[in-house]
Write the structure tokens for this entry.
Amino acid sequence: MAYSAPWQQKPSFRNGLVSDGSQIAALDDRMVSVETQQVGTCMRKYAFGQRWVLLSFLLFAACSQSIAGGAGDIANSSPDGGVEPDPISTNDDADAAPVEESVPVDISVRGTTTDTILPLNAVSCNNNSPNFLHTDNRYFRVFDLGVAGVVGDFNVTSIDVGIEKAIGNGGTQNIVVSLQSLTGPIETGTLVQLGVANVPVPDQVETLINVPLSVTIPAGTTLVAEVFTPDGQGIGNSIFLGSNRDTEVGPTYIAAPACGINQPTPIASLGLPGVVMSMVLNVNGQHTPN
């Protein structure tokens, strides 16, 4: 078996007095009636010994209300002659700063700068020309979510997978797309599956397919996305994943036991002449940066 590159958010009260007669009060024989005093008279000074303070208070109250309609009638805004207090605010939080709500934000974690898919650029373990029928091939991308800008949990909604060329027996074939967590070096024994989707792929050339997949990736996870193309030699399937030569955030890995590659290995390290395969694969979802 050989590798093949098909070049492919106080209360203030008014002080007031109520009178029910023609006089507000007779403090003693030295007091005078207040109701006959006009508003201007209220500005005069009165001194009646020890009673001065109380009378001053009464005069101040009389001045603070309007005198009208007859002796002793003190008008105010209350229908029953009382004085209505100003409304008291009961909203303890009126002056509190608005609390910002955390809003989920869309984000795509990308392996390449663009989604351009080049022809005759990808490689697979296959039986060579003329049909390039592939064996089991597993392709991997490793993502450091913190470096990619993901804050907190990553709520994945879908994965974009590039297809360079797919030719299936009967016009379709299946691939398997999965997300896994990684602990330690990227080897199959350190991968824990988080979500998987079986995807039918109709025949197509140089396209980007979107695979719905809903899974929450806990904060701090090293995320691995895998695309598995099952052996197509027995039924006549051939597929090459979409790729380009963009600078990658990390290597594109492949595992293909039929070609002696038992563990995920960077394609760049295989020594294939002229091969630069940057697999086009994006993981889409939401995070909450606030």
